[in-house]
Every structure is written in C-alpha cells, then in structure tokens.
Design a protein that fits this description.
3-stranded antiparallel beta sheet; alpha+beta
C-alpha cells in the first residue's frame, strides 16, 4: 500500500480500507439490485468519501487526486461498483466546485454532496437563451450513481454567446427535473446503477446561466470565469485527470481477485500454479506510475502540466486499466470451473473488472505514447461519450 505523508490525506484512505469488508458484504446485493444498496451509500456518506476533492471552503476535505485514486482502490477491493460511484461523484464535485458562487451555494448545502455525471447529452442542441441554456428532450446514458444524486452535471454542446460556434459546456441539472430510465442491464458494474435519463421535451428544461460552465474553464491554463477555490486539486486539468480515480477502481478489482485466489488457494491441496507475487507487482507498478504522474502534474512549472505530462497521465491511466484487467483475467482463468457459478465472488469481480475496462479511458490504442499529445488533448473532451462508455 502506497503511503501518503500528509496525515489528512491518509485518513480517507484508511477509512476506505476499513469499509472494504463491509462493502464486500453488500456487493452481491448491489449486483442483484443493479444499484448501490442504501446501506452502502450510507457508509460512504458517513465516512465523507464523496467529498475528498471538494474544497474545504465548501465543506469538503480539499485533498488531491492521489487520495481519490487510493480511496477508489480500497473501496473497489470490497465492491467495484461502490468504488466506481464514489470515484465518479467525487470527481464531479471537484468540477462543480469551480462553477459560479451561486451554483456552489445551491449544491454544497449539507455534510455530504452527491452529484452524478453524464458528459454528453444526446438529442437536439442546447438553445442559448437570455437566461441560460434551454434543453429540449435530451437523453444521457451511463449516468453512474444517478439513483443517489441530488444533481446531475451534464455535458452539452452550445454556443458560448449568440452567433458563436457550439462548444462543450457543463450544465448542472436538478435530478428531480429529469426522468431516469430502467435500462441498466449489463454484464458487470451492475451496482453502479448507471441508467439513462431524459430531460423534459416541452417546454424544455431551462438551465440558468450560473449553472453553466464551458469545459475549457476547467483547464488551469485558461482563465476561469468564477475563480478557483483553494489551490491543490485546481491546478489539475480536467482533460488529464478527469478519469484517474476510475483507474483506482481497476487497481482495487485486481487486488480483490488476488485476495479471492489467495483465500481459495489456502484451502486447496497442492502447489499454487499462479504467480501471485508477479501479478501483485504488476498492480503495484501500475499504481506507482499513476501517483508519479500526478505528482509531476502538481509540481509542473506549467499549470496543469505540459502537453507531454498530460499525455503521459492519459497513457498511464489506460495502462493501469489494461494491466489490471489482465491480472483479473489471469486469476479467473487459473481458478477452475467453480468460478462460473453466480455465487462465486470471483465471477462478479471478473465481470466488474472487464466492464470497467471497456471504458474508453483504458484504451491504450486511443491515447498512445507521449508524442501523440496533441491528439490526446483533442480526444479528451469527449472521453465519456454515451456511445462509448461502459458505466
């Protein structure tokens, strides 16, 4: 386990580690319900793990993405769906914390804040009106944690001003003004409840201007229209670190698979044919790369990191996902025919890991080596389009 020298940063990781056995007890129920059980959400709320990245000024811990990665890893070791939902909702709170002060006041009102994310709504383009954006009958897929959220941060394409070309924006929607669809029937990550939703067709849903933010405003190289609370996590570029905590989920599923194998190997006679030390080292190395990249971005002379540093981060997120998926598959394939039964925990871990790794952020062909940094920057804006995401 990598250690964090900052005691405040280490505390949420320790809390997540302590929760993992209890989350494991609810994992099968989450799989059956196709959403997180209320007991799981309550545990995450009580530990304040949705608010790791939320600035202290808004009631959160104000910590960095290294903490978010390690928290997701520990949670996913108990339940991949819990780790995924916490990673997504925590990262969304980081983005909303950079919206207009009025939006922040509306959202961060309680001891724990839960905001779901959908990065690209489909349907008619958002209409720019005097008071903000008007959405007509739009639909979003893969909205992880929507059942437990009060708000949805949704990606739309809209002109910045009247007559301008459309560009990516975030629009903050009250969940109660949307309609969720029971379409989350999947092979894995069932407990994320990443169902679709729609916005009203007529007269439409008006998103006031203070709840709208250009995606470009989340790049520390660009001037934010509203300023940035705190410092540490807000020197990070959304295009580079927006999905890094999801890599923590793959780290955790690989750990969980190795845990399950070790437990079963201890009950079985004969030598263990699986090279557990080598597989463990693979996971350790993947995590070490992520933490090193995050430190390089934080310490960079360029706010948010140079293009090469950002590209390396994107590449190593993909690398971590693919390597951890391979570890889980190796454990599954070495575990005999008994793992095909629904009551075998390793079967669920295997399904969850492979569903998570389908996310385009883990496609090494998509992100490539550092010399493709320009292509990487262009692709990152639509990283979680509904046509491509897994959860």
């Amino acid at each position: 386990m990598a250690t964090l020298t900052n005691i405040e940063s280490a505390a949420p990781v320790a809390a997540a580690r302590a929760l993992a056995p209890r989350l494991r007890e609810h994992a099968a129920e989450a799989d059956r319900l196709r959403t997180l059980p209320d007991a799981t959400v309550r545990l995450l709320d009580e530990a304040r793990l949705f608010d790791v990245l939320t600035p202290r000024e808004l009631g959160g811990a104000g910590l960095g993405f290294d903490t978010a990665v390690l928290v997701a890893e520990e949670l996913a070791r108990g339940c991949a769906s819990a780790g995924w939902v916490c990673a997504v909702l925590g990262g969304t709170a980081w983005a909303v914390a950079q919206m207009a002060p009025r939006a922040r006041e509306e959202v961060f009102t309680g001891p724990s804040t839960r905001i779901a994310l959908q990065l690209r709504l489909g349907g008619p383009p958002a209409e720019r009106v005097a008071d903000g954006l008007l959405l007509h009958g739009m639909r979003g897929r893969f909205c992880s944690g929507i059942d437990h959220a009060d708000w949805i941060l949704a990606g739309v394409s809209a002109p910045r001003t009247e007559g301008a070309d459309p560009e990516p924006h975030f629009a903050l929607l009250p969940r109660e003004r949307t309609e969720s669809l029971d379409d989350w029937h999947t092979s894995g990550l069932r407990g994320t409840g990443s169902r679709s939703f729609t916005t009203p067709a007529a007269p439409g849903l008006l998103v006031p201007e203070h709840r709208v933010l250009p995606l470009s405003a989340l790049d520390p190289l660009n001037a934010s229209p509203y300023g940035r609370p705190g410092t540490a996590p807000y020197r990070m570029a959304h295009t580079a670190v927006g999905t890094v905590a999801l890599a923590g989920v793959l780290l955790g599923t690989a750990r969980a698979a190795l845990d399950a194998h070790t437990e079963s190997a201890g009950r079985a006679p004969g030598p263990d044919a699986l090279d557990v030390p080598a597989l463990t080292a693979t996971v350790d190395a993947a995590r070490a790369l992520l933490l090193a990249d995050l430190k390089a971005l934080a310490d960079s002379a360029t706010p948010g990191g140079s293009r090469e540093e950002r590209a390396r981060m994107r590449r190593d997120i993909a690398h971590a996902g693919t390597r951890c998926r391979a570890v889980v598959n190796a454990v599954y394939e070495a575990s005999g025919s008994g793992v095909i039964y629904d009551d075998a925990p390793l079967q669920r871990i295997w399904r969850d890991a492979n569903a998570a790794a389908q996310h385009p952020t883990f496609d090494l062909r998509r992100w490539g080596p550092p010399h493709l940094e320009a292509q990487t920057e262009a692709r990152s804006a639509d990283i979680t389009s509904p046509q491509e995401t897994s959860a």
